[in-house]
Design a protein that fits this description.
CATH superfamily of the largest domain: lambda repressor-like DNA-binding domains
Structural class: mainly alpha
CATH architecture of the largest domain: Orthogonal Bundle
CATH topology of the largest domain: 434 Repressor (Amino-terminal Domain)
CATH class of the largest domain: Mainly Alpha
Largest sheet: 2 strands, antiparallel
Strand content: under 5%
Length: about 120
């Protein structure tokens, strides 16, 4: 079983970072990183969150609760002005997409068609 410390070290090495560089990124002492990597100390919630965000992995994976390494991160998007009215009329108020995704004009049109189908509107 891979421990949190093993995973933290693996992530650091994959990024080509030293413990010294890593401690600067996370705002902790070098000895803290060393203790985490050797499983002599457990991280607090704040460190777990920073680490997951920096390395783009899920906290569940880091803690050994899942085999799925990457977290699905989403962000709220604001529709282009030309689509806001129709989406509002269709009852679509909150939109979230994968953080790395960008919606093209064609994507917005498909989203509207999908919303129309869901609402039963031609």
């Amino acid at each position: 079983m891979s421990t949190f410390g093993n995973k933290l070290k693996q992530l650091r090495i994959e990024k080509g970072l030293t413990q010294k560089e890593s401690c600067k990124i996370f705002g902790v002492a070098e000895s803290t990183i060393s203790h985490y990597e050797s499983d002599k100390r457990n991280p607090d919630h704040e460190f777990l969150i920073k680490c997951a965000q920096h390395y783009h992995v899920s906290i569940d994976w880091m803690l050994g609760l899942t085999d799925k390494r990457n977290a699905i991160v989403s962000k709220e998007v604001d529709p282009p002005e030309k689509y806001k009215k129709i989406l509002s009329m269709l009852g679509v108020t909150d939109l979230f997409i994968f953080e790395e995704a960008e919606l093209t004009d064609e994507d917005w049109k498909e989203l509207i068609q999908f919303a129309k189908k869901m609402k039963g509107t031609p």
